[in-house]
Write a structure and sequence with these properties.
Alpha-Beta Plaits, two-stranded antiparallel sheet, mainly beta, 1 helix
């Protein structure tokens, strides 16, 4: 289980403080999600909070 942020990210930073496992960090051009620590908010929230707050819908589940 993990999420990823695609190149549509506008680097707004809305997602980073919402992550309960601190899996989101600012990368060189866009924010990044560490797949090793991302739990898609399971055990914390009903839905991934980063997806809920993202203004451009650039966060997706890894297929």
């Amino acid at each position: 289980m993990a999420l990823y942020i695609n190149e549509d990210c506008i680097n707004c930073g809305a997602c980073e403080p919402e992550c309960p496992t601190e899996a989101i960090t600012e990368g060189d051009d866009i924010y990044e999600i560490d797949a090793k620590t991302c739990v898609e908010c399971e055990g914390h929230f009903d839905e991934p909070q980063c997806i809920e707050v993202c203004p451009v819908d650039c966060i997706f589940k890894v297929q």
